[in-house]
Fold this protein.
Amino acid sequence: MAKKTYEFGIDDALGTSDNLAVFAKQLGKMDAPLAVVLTPHLARLAAGHTPDAAAIWNALFAATAEAPGQDLAGPDDDEEAVE
Amino acid sequence: MSWLLEQISIEGFRGINNAGAPLALKFHTGKVNSVFAPNGVGKSSIFEALTYALTSEIPKLEALPAAERGGTYYLNCFHPENTGTIILSLQPDPPGPSISVSVTRDAAGVRTVTVSDGRDGEALLQELNREFVLLDAKTFQRFIDETPLNRGRSFSGLLGLGSYSALRQALQALSNTRAFNNHFDVNAKNGRKQLIERQIAQARTNIRESYLALVGEEPVQGASNNDLRTKAHAILHNIPLIQPKCEGKSFDEISPEDCLVSVREAEGGPDRERLAKLLQAETRWTEAIAALPTAEFAAQLVEIARERDTALEQTQGDMFLRLYRLTREITEREDWKDKTVCPACDRQGDTSVLDHATGKVALYDAVTAASGKLTQAWAAGDWDRLAEVENATKQDGEILQIASAKAKISTNEFTEAVAVSLQARMEILRRRAADALAAVTAEKLALEQKLPPSLVAVTEKVEAARRLQSALLSFETSLAALSDLTSELHRIERVRTFLTDASGAFSQAESDAATRRLAAVEPLCREIFQNIIFDPVVPAISKRAGAEDLQISLASFHDLANVSAQSVLSESYRNAFAISVYLAAASLYGGAAKFLLFDDVTSSLDAGHQFHLMEVIRTRFSRPVVTNGLQVILLSHDTLLEKYFNTNGATAGWSHQRIEGTPRTAVLPQSNAVNRVRDATMTLLNAGNAQDAAPRIRQYLEYVLEEVIIRCRIPVPMDIALGDDRRMAGHLIGAIDAQVKLHANANSLVLEAAQVQGLNLAVATISANFLAHWSTGQTQAFAPGALLGVMQAIDSYADCFKFEPVPGQARRFYKSLSQKQ
């Protein structure tokens, strides 16, 4: 099976929070309602905090009540996008 | 935003007591900074204080055995308030208002961080905690000796990718299939889905058969359930005897019991009642038999249990799993050269221990996979129905086995033996159910012969209607349950796909960035290494695409190519390799911290290489030569290096200071704090504390002597400070005395005769009352009164080298021993 390729790349000219904001937008394109749930965790996870996997999985599952195409959760707003 | 370190202030922490008067070390943000301290004075405590401020711990204390109670040694043992305080003054770059970050630790180990402008202190310190900020010899040694994986993780941080690496690992953990499936109980849900699908198929069969019995024909193809209900209702409604019971009701609302009451009332008698019960029993047994797990299913269960048993037999419990995993980890290391040597017993075998351990771990993975398969298969069986059959056919003294087998599944004790026993039990129950059905059917047929045919036919229609009602209900309920379960599984799959894609996208991006940045670091690393070592040795660093590990080697070693760095490099060259990597990465991928602290990083280098390294730092790496470079702070106890510091300290781009003191009292910088040293010493002597005053007198004396030497331009031997530090003051006095005598003999001495006499008197007091005891370590001989006289003699000594330029004005040092001004 061919290896899957992705659009996201780390931009060396941007700081961590800006790159995470770009990644959050990419997540929004993958599945907007689930991106809304995962995005606020990115900064903490990047800071090395151990994820509470069960809580994140449950929240993601709850978010699947919305169809993937619904609500892009304002990913243009980088401040909100990454906590 | 980036930050430079203006000052660090320390009190009550590690080797720095300074109660009420914190050690305040100022650093120049635009120069190379060096701090020299003799052994035992507190240089490493400065490094540890910054380590604690940035990382919340001191690794060497945390690594101590519990009995050593390392946590209690963060604080200075002599500090009266048992609290450690570290204050960092940070200047933003580009310049703006400075802030001060205060970090305290109390006796209970509680850490508090506050920032002068109210921002989140821990977040700021975390941002400053980059891999290149706190560098000591251990860091460099670790970098070389680490496994490629751990080295790669450190390197990720050096490349400014530490946070990306942390996020990648977190996303990988979230998308881990096994943990994810366990959390959502995916195997059991898939098994349950199979069960419901079978129940739906059975309900379809029941609908068709009961409809045929009631209506007398097969359901029309494509007919909906409501069509079937309408037709069934019409059939019952057309039977005059039970018509009143159907009037005004839907098919589902018709009560078969009420209909049978009408039949009983029409004819009466226990036989009619019995026939109705037999018809119901026949339905129950028929449905139960249809729902029983098939013989093929039972055989499949036995096969899966056997597979799991076999896998389990190959393993030896959790303790061995830990052993095999550790063995694999050790033998995977680059420095574990011979993979056939066992790390536990050091014996060499014929085959690879790594392959053996990897194979053993794989056997445990096979057990996990087989357990998952068993869980899924079990969930596909209707064990509740089988348990009902067991209860209904139970014979005296028999033990119920179905519930017991169910319990063994949940405790992972469902072995092949249990599965075989269950298989046999299922066959027994199937036979008993078939026997019960046959008995019911035989009795029913006998009664039907005995009773009037018309009423028998009505009873049979009513019972068929009951079965149809039940089958329709079962079909629709199962269909709804299947729809819910399918939807749930789709939602779970959606989460899995999202996390897998998120993890995949981020991993790929991080790997690409690491490859890109590594390519930029390597040439710079080689250049730095070359400028430290000046030998035909070329370091190489490489990373596999998509992997975390970082390999180091030598692209060339004299006339050899591709040589192992760990194997051939001396300790000094290994350190130089690591230093080159750190400096190259820090200069390319710095972050919030624009400063770095080196703690005795040159100890493995000879004087020549020390000089080369310092020159690399000064001319290629640090401010001010490198515009916008990093602010370097060098801590050292190396007296040779101090000569270099002293030489550069007199230039515009370098700031040097020396610290003195003891952990028991205080550590103070010699420069700019001499008055504080003098005042503190006098306070101690006036309080009768000669023991704590003595080291400060030495600090004060050395300062005064050095000031005389510098201000009066007195030449001293190059190795003046290289000897025993307790004798340094004596050496300095001797060197000054020799120059005074030289100028006196040459008639060029600028000092007045009274000053020369005063000089000799002061030296006699200092020598007899202080240096004679200090240089031999007999500090118990000190008396406070005599030491007060010594302090006075030190001041008098310095005064002998001064004159009053204009009467009434402050006295100034002579320009030299032969020139007044």
